[in-house]
Write a structure and sequence with these properties.
Blueprint lengths: L14 E4 L5 E7 L4 E6 L4 E5 L5 E6 L5 E6 L5 E5 L2 E6 L4 E6 L11 E10 L5 E9 L12 E6 L6 E8 L1 E10 L2 E9 L5 E9 L4 E10 L9 E10 L2 E9 L3 E6 L5 E6 L10 E8 L5 E7 L2 E2 L5 E2 L3 E5 L6 E3 L10 H5 L5 E2 L2 E6 L13
């Protein structure tokens, strides 16, 4: 299966931010400070990449594995980890826990929070979505489906299960159009057979409706891979769900209505830098040009080699007009409100690497 527009990325111009990560995931562009953020699951870190300075720095949360993060509308972060939900302010490196996450403690499997994203609602509100999965999928029996996907209600901060009875959830994302809330989510069984679903989200009841199969491994819709992270973008005005496929080096953009594969962004592939993609996000570089920040996971290969865990930037070709529709978490309490009366921790930022980039600071569009 090929894409209509082909590879819209300048893959030969790709630049590695870091190669010192285990599984890097859930990259988000923060329109309030102009930085990109992503997590390193197994190491339990949050990374910040500055397109202005080329510096990648990280904070070690020391809260177990970290599954994902989203941008709050006050410019701070909301992060999930094995020990709960945390409000994190990268401006002063402070953090506090504000909620537990029931990852399915009644299950006989050790569970952890995983993919995290924001579902925008047509009324201007939003829902933070979090998928919880088994730490070791090999121990899940053929008839077991222990995973749960929650939303975090913006007013009460209560977690409500909106989807269960699956093995692994991923690719949580959504958009609004003509008053409708459209969301996507993917599941993978223990044998790595993925499917991706499209549904409407009822903001009044916080329930999924009109579920329909969107992409299926049986049709090779994932081009040999498995869906992990996803974001909604527009390419030349066409709305796409951009899916990062594990076991491949490609981010593929599918038309949100027809599931037609429209474009790809190909990550670099060399014998020494083989990748298995996890997540990606689109946004501006230091000069306002569009880039795609791609994450991957470190994996052992059958031949004894290793696929690298990295974060890499691929510039987008100038002839394509790419707009990210990545939402921020609107309607949620601010950092100060989330942490009022809580124990505030002060973390220490560690510089990971620096790459050569222009240091000019043009005005950035909010995406």
């Amino acid at each position: 299966m090929t894409t209509k527009l082909g590879n819209i990325g300048q893959t030969d111009q790709a630049v590695f931010i870091t190669k010192d990560v285990s599984t890097s995931e859930t990259p988000m562009y923060n329109p309030y400070d102009g930085n990109y953020y992503f997590v390193d699951i197994e190491y339990g870190d949050v990374h910040q990449y500055s397109p202005n300075t080329g510096v990648d720095q990280k904070w070690h949360l020391n809260k177990g594995m970290v599954g994902g993060l989203v941008i709050n509308e006050d410019g701070t972060l909301i992060v999930n980890a094995e020990e709960g939900l945390f409000a994190f302010n990268p401006a002063d490196s402070t953090m506090a826990k504000f909620s537990d996450i029931d990852t399915g403690q009644s299950s006989k499997h050790k569970m952890r929070p995983n993919d995290m994203n924001v579902f925008p609602m047509a009324d201007g509100s939003s829902r933070i979505a979090i998928g919880c999965i088994p730490v070791d999928r090999t121990k899940v029996a053929a008839d077991e489906k222990p995973s749960i996907t929650y939303i975090v209600h913006p007013k009460t901060l209560a977690l409500k299960a909106i989807w269960d009875n699956h093995v692994t959830s991923n690719a949580l994302c959504g958009y609004t159009e003509n008053g409708e809330n459209v969301v996507f989510y993917a599941e993978t069984d223990k044998n790595h057979n993925p499917r991706m679903w499209r549904a409407n989200y009822n903001a009044a009841t916080d329930e999924l409706e009109n579920e329909e199969l969107f992409l299926d491994k049986a049709n090779d819709d994932f081009q040999g891979g498995r869906p992990d992270g996803a974001h909604i973008i527009e390419v030349d005005g066409q709305k796409l769900v951009a899916v990062s496929n594990l076991d491949t080096h490609r981010v593929v953009g599918y038309d949100v209505d027809t599931a037609e594969p429209v474009m790809s962004v190909d990550a670099p592939v060399t014998p020494d830098e083989e990748l298995t993609l996890t997540h990606s996000v689109f946004g501006p570089d230091a000069n306002g040009e569009t880039i795609c920040l791609i994450n991957s996971s470190k994996r052992e290969k059958p031949d004894g080699g290793v696929k690298l865990g990295v974060a890499v930037i691929v510039p987008i070709k100038s002839e394509f007009n790419v707009k990210s529709l990545q939402p921020v978490a609107t309607g949620y309490p601010s950092f100060d409100e989330l942490t009022a009366g809580k124990t505030i921790e002060k973390l220490k930022a560690q510089h990971v690497s620096r790459i050569s980039v222009p240091v000019s600071k043009p005005d950035r569009p909010v995406i």
